[in-house]
Amino acid sequence: MGHKPEGSPMRTPLHLWIVGLLSLLWNASSALDFVMAVTGNQSYLAMMTDAQRAYMSALPSWFVVAWAIGVWGAMAGSVLLLLRSRYAATAFLGSILGMIAASVYSYGLASPNAIEISGTVAIAFSVAIIAVAFALRAYARLMTRRGVLG
User: How many C-beta neighbours within 10 Å does residue 35 have?
Assistant: First the structure.
């Protein structure tokens, strides 16, 4: 009793669906932000200050690539988590690397930098985003080790 027969699929725990759906919603907001910014959506840009719009228009191509990897890696990780794929952790790792590279520009190389443009709330938000990505990667790795993701 209680023994799982060889080759039978593991039942998906409820928490995987909850984490997967919440992460998909969380990461979808970043994806929307990315799409609106890179396409130059006027109603989106109108919500920004002049300094923020100038910052966005001066982003180097490598930053946009790093930002894209961060955003779309996170989206892929969320979808892969819901698909119960072991590659979710790898996608979240790619996302983290993209976010870190983008943060190097935003807080270290850009002049003015994100803190000067948006204040300390910008760095707090960036730290929160990266912390969530690390937590999602750790969760995906744990679910892989437990045999939930395959």
Answer: 12
Q: Give CA–CA dist 96/125, Å, rounded.
A: 14
Query: Closest Cα to residue 24, out of 136, 142, 144?
Result: 136
Q: How far apart are CA 5 and CA 9, in angstroms?
A: 9
State how far the Cα of 134 lies from the Cα of 87, in Å rounded to an integer. Answer: 15
Integer Cα distance of 105 and 108 in angstroms:
5
Residue 114 corresponds to which tokens in the numbers above? Answer: 């994100």
* Angle between the N-to-C axes of helices 14-38 and 120-145, in degrees from 0 to 180, rounded to the nearest 10: 140
Output the tens digit of pLDDT for each of the chain's 150 residues. Answer: 444 445 545 789 999 999 999 999 999 999 999 999 999 999 999 999 999 999 999 999 999 999 999 999 999 999 999 999 999 999 999 999 999 999 999 999 999 999 999 888 888 999 999 999 999 999 999 999 999 999
Residues 6+ apart with CB under 8 A from 150: 84, 85, 86, 144
